[in-house]
Amino acid sequence: MARAQTVHEIAVVVLAAGQGTRMRSDRAKVLHEICGVPMLGHVQKVARALDPQRLIVVVGREAEAVTQAFGDSAEFVLQAERKGTGHAAMVCEESLADFEGDILILYGDTPLLRPETLLEMRALKAEKQADLVVLTALGDIPGRIVRDAEGRVARIVEAQDATPEELALEERNTGVYLVSSKLLWDGLGKIGAGNAQGEYYLTDIVGYAVETGHAVEGLRVEDSEDCLGINDRTQLAEASRIMRRRINENLMADGVTLVDPETTYIDATVEIGVDSVIEPGCCIYGSTRIGRGVVVKANCYIEDSRLDDGVVFGPYSHLRPQSHLMDGVKIGNFVEVKNSTLGPGSKSAHLTYIGDADIGSNVNFGCGSVVVNYDGYVKSRSKVADGAFIGCNVNLISPVSIEARAFLAAGSTISQDVPEDALAVARARQRSIEGWVARKEGRPYKKKNPGAESKDKTDDKEEA
After folding, report:
1. Same domain, 209 and 237
2. How many domains does the chain have?
3. What is the pTM of this model?
């Protein structure tokens, strides 16, 4: 008769105290970002998929910076002296003294693990009634997995201690363990630091478990890239490439068209609605939210902004943080929007800067128009109401308010409020001084229009 499967409560311990010297950085290694999220953030997200009763992060280098970055997202335990992975787990024993269940050991620099893998480990432990499950993989990892005749893990052999037959083994130890709390604390109390480094290694827990008659199982992950550990900038770039591919594949599976996924950079924190199209060369970062049926044309840069349904954006345009393009907004090429809201149906076809502005619906910005939001000391905000027309090369000197259906003539510099339905013209009279260049250069010049040295081209009706 088969034994009943028991799924125990689970606590997650993330080891994140390493020096990370090969990163050559002033920052803690686990704070380096992958697709907009610190690598430790990816690990915590995966851990939460198990709905753990406790989530503990062991910190060391730059401990204060790490704890500040993640706030109350986990419990933090300091490893003041770093004496190996076994010692890092030991410092959690006091915090978990009252916890009876399974403990999952993860690493803050292994951000590509998938929730499905950890759930499989938990299911295998329950199915086999194992005391310890080791996550294994194929790849260039030092520790070889040796299994017994029944397929259970018998021991982990490091390369320098392996026989020729053991060196040929392809299955390797990833260092990720799901272990009963009693076995973990008992084993850590028995293992020593009798090695050249004088450190305590978690791998010794496997040997202790086998020697004391505990059941040890191994789960081999199908994709070895899941277990990629990051120790230097090259591995950071590789992990980012893998994460980008996964993000893009998930978006396409959810109904988003990416014309060229290889040249499309999208953060893990971005949301995009169905039937949206992202053209090549786009970078979409931060907390950006893109609605349904949006078209982002080639080579655009979008950060921490919102694009509602039906927006067309780009090409070659920049949406800076805290911007909101409402339904049906159309933004053309070489337009920059910063900390502004554009109401439904508003548009700017090309060569415009809109900064710190509240724009109503169906507003048109002509080519070369600028919302001048900064006077060198203070950034100010302007308002443009529904239906206003902003002519080409108009400067709005903030703070200024343009009321509904106002019409601003091309080339105007607007520094005062414009009332509803008004035409605003703010430009100097044109003067043409005949012969000025010739005289400047010492050339003879014959006046072509005697008695009329200058002429004002401003139409009387427009001036009114």
Report:
1. no
2. 2
3. 0.89
